Amino acid sequence: MSSTEQHSSSSPAPVRVVVIEDEPTITRAIADRLTAEGWDVATALDGPSGVRTVSEHRPDVVVLDVMLPGFDGLEVCRRIQAEDPVPVLMLTARDDETDMLVGLGVGADDYMTKPFSMRELAARLKALLRRVRRTGAPAAPGPEPQMALQIGDLVIDRAGRRVMRGGVPAHLTPTEFDLLLCLASTPGTVLTREQLLADVWDWVDATGTRTVDSHVKALRRKLGADLVRTVHGVGYALEVPADEPEDS
To answer: Is residue 20 part of a domain?
Structure first.
């Protein structure tokens, strides 16, 4: 093998991204920015072609608009996550928390409200990919960590990335699982939104605090409203349940 071939074979593959957006000017702007980052970009302009493009290209991450012809971005997200889960950043034209919660509920990892800067979009995607790769990285050498974490009736299986509460399994998105594990690592301790953004999303941006709030609401909806306590003006803490009295 020549030195040129050796160099090319050792070079990391470019990040593959699929952009599903029905406004051509926005699609082109996103594609141009991410191509400038050295990424391999494929695009689609409607729901059905978006699902096909994701299936064909097997991207590392998807940028997905909520409002699409054919069928909307929520249905696209449901279909691609059912086939082969992939990190998804959703774009919405409405600053509507209900829409955001629905998007998170069907498997999106993050969202941005239009209009947005291309610089922030690229930064968000890079942070999302870092977090996904960090989650999938081999554990560092050292004492073997406890794989299952139990707090009251909440059981978190770190290795299998599964969660049960009261013996009932809960289906969490990768981001929801990471947020829950972050909170559960210090139960009863209040973590600020800034801490959670840095630890879970790997980015710090004061304008993004509603990202944390929306994911906390999704956790409450799936695992119970009493699970996460809000400390107004500060952040969130995982509730430590009081010991139940033993049966006599």
So the answer is: yes
